[in-house]
Design brief:
nine-stranded mixed β-sheet; elongated; 2 domains; Rossmann fold; 40% helix; thiamine biosynthesis; tRNA binding; VC0802-like; six-stranded mixed β-sheet
Length: 397
């Protein structure tokens, strides 16, 4: 007898009613992709649970992989046995004995998903608890605050015995909420915004603005590495690299310095929106946090947003920098973001950017530039890279 399954619980997906099976199918695909290097595992998805049959695969490796899959509320290592009372008793006893149990307290929490099982829930709790007590020493019952809460779930196909939960990533399965374009710089914020967007079920494609020779190939590689890290949470990501030097220089020559950053942001948003149209995206995601820098005041956001009617999603809008850094460290993007290679926005930041820009003024300054043509030419020269989880970087070039 051995631990042979992992039980996956859905959490928020359970509220989806008639659409739940669509969410379950998407989650099953994402789990299968995440476990592709474990060919022996079998995945069985039902309406309210998913069961991973390990088939001699190390459970801890599987659990670590699944902790990064959005849509999973929690996971538990489980023992499966036949739905026969005596076999359930023996399996429950075996399960308890795997823990350091002497001097500990326990309780049995039974659930009959199979209502045809001849023993009621209360009777099952009593039968299993009594059997464990008779066959162990130093173990006592505490139904309120037990050290070991043994959960026994009786189903038609078998009975699953679990105890401790591992917290999952939560959220919704990536791909269930449509596609959005992530404006991905080389900084700390935008990768975290991408992570949070995927947590709400969005499939993302990333757009990065590259201005050689002012920004280096190492800065470009940093962004590729950030996008590659995000694939571990959301699967394949297409990264669109925008050659931005010519357009950015034209803006900084024509537009007064204190308005140049706002005009640059407007051009970036227009370009991202054009790429979104080509890729059939529904929204644009940014790493902006209200008031964090000059271009992220509410007045600036209103002026920048004026160039599009596409929804702009800002997952970090109410977070402070400390919270963003903490999350970046947790998801494994912070150490990449702090590499000392600057992006185009950082290099061209004016000394005194306008914090309360006027839309009429920026439109006036921009009318002296052939922006429509320059944006179309820029979009036509975008380089696209497809990134996949566990993909060697030498395959990209």
């Amino acid at each position: 007898m051995t631990y042979d399954h992992i039980v996956v619980r859905y959490g928020e997906m359970s509220t989806k009613g008639k659409n739940r099976l669509q969410f379950v199918r998407c989650l099953k695909r994402n789990v299968a992709r995440k476990l592709k290097h474990f060919p022996n595992v079998e995945i069985e998805a039902s309406r309210d649970r998913m069961y991973i049959r390990l088939r001699e695969t190390p459970p801890q490796l599987v659990i670590e992989k699944l902790r990064e899959v959005f849509g999973i509320q929690s996971l538990s290592l489980a023992l499966k046995t036949d739905s026969d009372l005596q076999k359930i008793k023996e399996a429950t006893l075996f399960f308890v004995k795997q823990f350091p149990h002497e001097g500990k307290t326990f309780k049995i929490s039974a659930r009959r998903a199979d209502k045809q099982f001849p023993v009621t829930t209360n009777e099952l709790n009593y039968e299993l608890g009594s059997y464990v007590l008779k066959n162990t020493t130093g173990l006592t019952v505490d139904v309120h605050h037990p050290d070991i809460d043994v959960r026994v779930e009786v189903r038609k196909e078998g009975t699953y015995i679990t105890a401790y939960d591992v917290q999952g990533a939560g959220g919704l399965p990536v791909g269930t909420s449509g596609k959005a374009m992530l404006m991905l710089s080389g900084g700390i914020d935008s990768p975290v915004a991408g992570y949070l967007a995927m947590k709400r079920g969005l499939q993302i494609e990333a757009v990065h603005f590259f201005s050689p020779p002012f920004t280096s190939e190492r800065a470009k590689q940093k962004v590729i590495d950030l996008a590659q890290r995000l694939t571990e949470f959301g699967g394949t990501i297409r990264l669109h690299i925008v050659p931005f030097t010519e357009l950015q220089q034209a803006i900084y020559k024509q537009v007064p310095e204190n308005y140049s950053l706002i005009s640059t942001r407007r051009a970036m948003l227009r370009i991202t929106d054009e790429i979104r149209k080509k890729e059939n995206g529904l929204a644009i995601v940014t790493g902006e946090s209200l008031g964090q820098v000059a271009s992220q005041t509410l007045e600036s956001m209103v002026v920048v947003n004026d160039v599009t009617t596409t929804p702009i999603l800002r997952p970090l809008i109410s977070m402070d920098k400390t919270e963003i850094i903490s999350l970046a460290e947790r998801i494994g993007t912070h150490h990449i973001s702090i590499r000392p290679y600057e992006d185009c926005c950082t290099i061209f930041t004016p000394k005194a950017p306008k914090t309360k820009p006027k839309k009429e003024k920026v439109i006036h300054y921009e009318q002296f530039l052939p922006l429509d043509k320059m944006i179309a030419d820029t979009v036509a020269r975008v380089e696209t890279i497809t990134l996949r989880p566990d993909q060697p970087l030498d395959e990209l070039f």
